[in-house]
Amino acid sequence: MQFETEEVAPSRCKVRQKHYHMEQIAWKLEHIRLSREFSREYGTFLGIAWVVTFLLFVVGLVANNFIASMLGSMLMIASPIFALYLSWRFKQLLEAGDNVSWGIAWVFVSFTLLYANFLLGAAAYVYFQFFDEGRVCEAFYAMLTHPDIIAQYKQMGMSDILENSKAQFDIVAQLSPFDLAMNLFADNLVFSFFLGIPMLIIAHRKSRNIKKEVEKLQNKGAEQEQQ
Q1: Which among 35, 60, 68, 95 is placed 20 to 30 Å from 226, CA to CA?
Q2: Contact present, 82 and 49 (Cβ < 8 Å)
Q3: For the stretch 131-144, what's the b/e string if a residue is b when 16 or more beta carbons lie within 10 angstroms of its beta carbon?
């Protein structure tokens, strides 16, 4: 009987360990699913903030509206802070107990910024295709050819830079609405890469909220290791 007990005990331990590992895998898959759901929601919020910033800059440039330009600048400064807050909120709502893995954090950050960029690119295309009618390009060209701007560049000895800017702008002015939107999308992707680094770190950091189910799972694992 003693021999049978020694045979059965290791097999039960293996079954418990296998069950514990299966629960861990299911827990990680659930976190991946939740990270994608959160990224869709938060990416929409961030994308709306970027679209509002873009429209305020357009209004400030085309209509020469100082208030719109100031609000756009404030939103541009606040948008990275808002993105970092979304990463912190994702971490708190996920309630991982311990550090979220880099992979899950990467899924959340990547999809959040991708959704936001797609929303901004779509809004920019709609604007340039149906509403702009060349107003942004005309406003930029008027700014570059303004006598005060030319005088300032000459005073600083930077007339060549101004001429190069005009030449580059002439090329940009010939782009189609789709190309303009794609250029904005590509430039914002570069900005998103640098913004994603602190977002990833915040999403990976340890949370103060500890989920009860995770505590139970960890306690089970500790008991099984002692047995």
Answers
A1: 95
A2: yes
A3: ebeeebbebbeeee
Closest CA to 100 of 210, 225, 18, 19: 210
Half-sphere exposure of 157 (CA within 13 A, CB side): 0
Residue 8 lies in a domain: no
Q: Is residue 209 helix, strand or coil?
A: coil
Please count the structural domains in the chain. 1
pLDDT at 151: 83
The pLDDT tens digits for 32-90 are: 777 788 888 899 999 999 999 999 999 998 888 889 989 998 999 999 999 999 888 88
Report which of 84, 51, 88, 114 is spatially closest to residue 195, judged by C-alpha positions. 84
Q: Is 200 domain-assigned?
A: yes
Least confidently predicted of 73-77, 116-120, 218-222: 218-222
**Dist CA 77 CA 210 (whole Å):** 33
Beta-bridge partner residues of 76: none
Nearest CA among 53, 59, 50 for reference residue 136: 59
The answer for residues whose C-beta is within 8 angstroms of residue 16's C-beta and 6 or more apart is 224, 227
CA gyration radius for the chain?
Answer: 27
- Give 165 or 221, the one with higher predicted confidence: 165
Residue 172 corresponds to which amino acid?
A: V
Residue 6 lies in a domain: no
State which residues form the domain around 111: 14-226
Residue 96: strand pairing partners: 210
